[in-house]
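Hello forum,

I keep getting stuck at the same step: I have a sequence, I want structure tokens, and every attempt I make locally crashes halfway through. Rather than fight my setup again tonight, could one of you with a working pipeline run this one for me? It's a single chain of 239 residues.
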Amino acid sequence: MLHKQVKDILAEKITILEKKEENVCLVGPIQLPVKLEEKTVMFQWYSWLTCKELPTTTEGIVEMLSSVQLADMQQSSVLVYGDFNESKEALIRMHSICHTGDIFGSQKCDCGYQLKQSMKMIVEKGSGALFYLANHEGRGIGLFSKAMAYLLQEQGYDTVEANLELGFRDDSRSYEDAILVLNHLRPLPVTLITNNPKKLEALKQAGLSHSGHTPLWGGESPYNEKYLETKIEKSGHMK
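Reply #2:
Ran it on my machine without issues. Output:
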């Protein structure tokens, strides 16, 4: 049984977003001070959980937490900056988690650079959101499969070839839940930070209301030249 004070605190920050076969539980906003270079910027942080049998009460959700190994699953989140709900213009970034690039600073890709740079662009714009999509590792194949793809890449396969050889599509990512959360947080169009026309098309098909896109290119190193070339030649990325 939840104490009334705890129940009241959580109830104000929990929203159930309904889908056809499963619901999305959105928690937030939570004040999150983030250090960008030498400046600390205050973001509003949300996290969400998708579940077919998701409870619809605060008590039910809290009771579920101790019986389900959520640490073994992946949950996505979003950093919101400024008056995202009502601002005339807003930037968003749909960022696929990259364990090696975002956390370790790997130079095999440009993900770490894109993560930090898109956050800076959102702050400079004055309004926006960075969606951090935890089930998008390796373009949707997962961390363990990505490790095997890296082994193939060390032997000369490019990113697309490695994924295909392991039995995956070039890109297995889904944006349905992210768009559901986006539409809850902001009813107005957004500008998407991306170089990937396939991502823009996938987001449009998932219901993205957008007013355009802006490119983000950089983070080149001697270790990711082939990776970046493959993005352009096989995935259609714009430079």
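The beta strands are 14-18, 23-36, 39-51, 76-81, 91-96, 128-133, 190-193, 210-214. If your local run keeps crashing, start a new thread with the error log.
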